């Protein structure tokens, strides 16, 4: 692989606050993402000046919502949020589920390079592994609208488990549009939460829902 001329956003101070003693791993991952991301079609060049803020910090804001157990991340792509969360939460086990071979190769290479022992990479679509995994919590970012995510993710989560989806401004509208699926798949306590509101970074939003 050829080196990419890196014009990376300077690491924001909040990164060290959020990653604590895992910051060196987060730096190594971010550096690799900047180096290979465009070449491997993982992130576009326009994202480089906001790689930390918009992608790495945005993902790690979810870390406090996770409980020790098994977490599935659907459509991990470049590793967002799954690999970032696995860096931040070594006490949680993760399965990154991603159908594209080039992306799973990238994810596995990073898992190996960072010597992460709490991550499994599975090349598949979510709906192909319903009989293979039962997660305590399931995360996703930028995969599809809530109404489409519900049927492919709920069968992967244990009763009492939780969906945690990073969403933008559309969160409430997506909940509204997914009302039929929410009823059909027995989701309760469906709500939008703001993350990072009092921190020195862009706030973000998640949809959280409990699986009956
Ligand atoms: C727009 S990318 C987002 C990647 C990453 N989550 C992020 O936030 O940058 C959507 C990803 O979801 C994956 N994907 C699409 N449909 C999927 C499915 N049914 N199950 C699992 N992954 C899926 C795609 O291959 C792609 O990597």
Automatic annotation (TrEMBL):
<feature type="binding site">
    <location>
        <position position="75"/>
    </location>
    <ligand>
        <name>S-adenosyl-L-methionine</name>
    </ligand>
</feature>
<feature type="binding site">
    <location>
        <position position="141"/>
    </location>
    <ligand>
        <name>S-adenosyl-L-methionine</name>
    </ligand>
</feature>
<comment type="similarity">
    <text>Belongs to the methyltransferase superfamily. RNA methyltransferase RsmG family.</text>
</comment>
<dbReference type="InterPro" id="IPR029063">
    <property type="entry name" value="SAM-dependent_MTases_sf"/>
</dbReference>
<comment type="function">
    <text>Specifically methylates the N7 position of a guanine in 16S rRNA.</text>
</comment>
<keyword id="KW-0489">Methyltransferase</keyword>
<dbReference type="GO" id="GO:0070043">
    <property type="term" value="F:rRNA (guanine-N7-)-methyltransferase activity"/>
</dbReference>
<feature type="binding site">
    <location>
        <position position="80"/>
    </location>
    <ligand>
        <name>S-adenosyl-L-methionine</name>
    </ligand>
</feature>
<keyword id="KW-0808">Transferase</keyword>
<keyword id="KW-0949">S-adenosyl-L-methionine</keyword>
<dbReference type="Pfam" id="PF02527">
    <property type="entry name" value="GidB"/>
</dbReference>
<keyword id="KW-0698">rRNA processing</keyword>
<feature type="binding site">
    <location>
        <begin position="126"/>
        <end position="127"/>
    </location>
    <ligand>
        <name>S-adenosyl-L-methionine</name>
    </ligand>
</feature>
<keyword id="KW-0963">Cytoplasm</keyword>
<dbReference type="InterPro" id="IPR003682">
    <property type="entry name" value="rRNA_ssu_MeTfrase_G"/>
</dbReference>
<dbReference type="GO" id="GO:0005829">
    <property type="term" value="C:cytosol"/>
</dbReference>
<protein>
    <recommendedName>
        <fullName>Ribosomal RNA small subunit methyltransferase G</fullName>
        <ecNumber>2.1.1.-</ecNumber>
    </recommendedName>
</protein>
């Amino acid at each position: 692989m050829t080196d990419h001329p890196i014009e990376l956003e300077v690491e924001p101070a909040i990164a060290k606050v959020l990653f604590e003693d895992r910051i060196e791993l987060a730096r190594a991952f971010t550096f690799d993402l900047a180096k290979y991301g465009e070449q491997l079609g993982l992130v576009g060049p326009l994202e480089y000046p906001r790689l930390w803020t918009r992608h790495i910090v945005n993902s790690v804001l979810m870390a406090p919502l996770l409980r020790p157990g098994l977490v599935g991340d659907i459509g991990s792509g470049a590793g967002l949020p799954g690999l970032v969360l696995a860096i931040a939460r070594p006490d949680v086990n993760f399965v990154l589920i991603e159908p594209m071979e080039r992306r799973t190769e990238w994810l596995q290479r990073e898992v190996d390079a960072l010597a992460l022992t709490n991550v499994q990479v599975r090349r598949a679509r979510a709906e192909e592994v319903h009989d293979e995994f039962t997660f305590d919590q399931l995360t996703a970012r930028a995969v599809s609208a809530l109404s489409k995510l519900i049927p492919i993710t709920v069968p992967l989560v244990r009763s009492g488990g939780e969906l945690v989806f990073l969403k933008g401004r559309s969160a409430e509208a997506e909940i509204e549009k997914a009302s039929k699926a929410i009823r059909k798949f027995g989701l309760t306590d469906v709500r939008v939460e703001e993350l990072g509101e009092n921190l020195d970074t862009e706030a973000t939003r998640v949809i959280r829902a409990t699986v009956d």
